[in-house]
Give the backbone structure.
Amino acid sequence: MKHFLSVNDVADPDALIRKAIGMKHQALSSGSRPGAGKRIGLLFFNPSLRTRISTQIAAQNLGMEVMVLNADRENWALEFTDGAVMDGATVEHIKDAARVLGRYFDILGVRTFPSLRNKEEDYSEHVLNQFVRYAGIPVVSLESATLHPLQSLADLITISEHFSENRKPRVVLTWAPHIKPLPQCVANSFAQWVLAWNKAELVIAHPQGYELDEAFMQGAAVTHRQEEALQAADFVYVKNWSSVRNYGQLLPVSENWMLTLEKLKITRNARVMHCLPVRRNVELSDEVLDSPASLVTEQASNRVWAAQAVLAEILVALR
Ligand code: CP
């Protein structure tokens, strides 16, 4: 694996899931340190709890040296426009910064959220792709403008661990309310991974106007009726996202889309997933999050093994 920007960088998603689960079972007992002598830099242009910590633990488990830069406040203000006359607020061009980082590190992780103002620019991965272009080393997405592949890999690890029947599980991705517009990354990425994995039946439920970008959801069933989707569900993945069509906007929704224990009764004892952080009693009720149905802490825990499996694959390619 050269870069890890989406499921398209993974030759066999199921093999990567099984590799991560194998690493989890081995934990640190093997003493293997394939990352010894290698250094990873983690650049965060946006806040993070899980991605920041789990990726550091994963890299350290592999024997790597890790450095974290809070690029939003500790870095020179970066310019991303080619040919810009830099007589304004930006101090350093991405070309120069990424080339330098490529000399300091063996692998670079980058978190860069979308602006939610310019769809064309966000969906071109304007920022992440410039790190790929100029750093000259493998780049791992720590969540980009459109996708969150490390989260999705952890999600599929979690589903694999909690489903043992000899059939495809019914997995429902349902929109949830929120007080402010959020990116579509987690939903895009989850849909893309489930469809590429091809070991689950995916149903996406959302109110009118919250259609995801076609590029990520081809092959999924879509409904605007949450209760219809929840019937016989084995897993319910709850997530808010802002409108793609009315880019980055919150549209009025008359029905209550927050998942409750009452709504869960029509599922097949479904387990409930969310990437976290979650706004309790807005996106998901306390009663669901604190119930045995909730897998949210398991998902966050599996972020370590997702990152470790990905970094291990990249280290193989670096040898
Ligand atoms: N789910 C997730 O990516 O969490 P953080 O934003 O805290 O990293």
In short: Residues 213 and 244 are 7 Å apart (CA to CA). The mean pLDDT is 96. The domain at 163-294 is CATH 3.40.50.1370 (Rossmann fold). The longest strand covers residues 39-44.
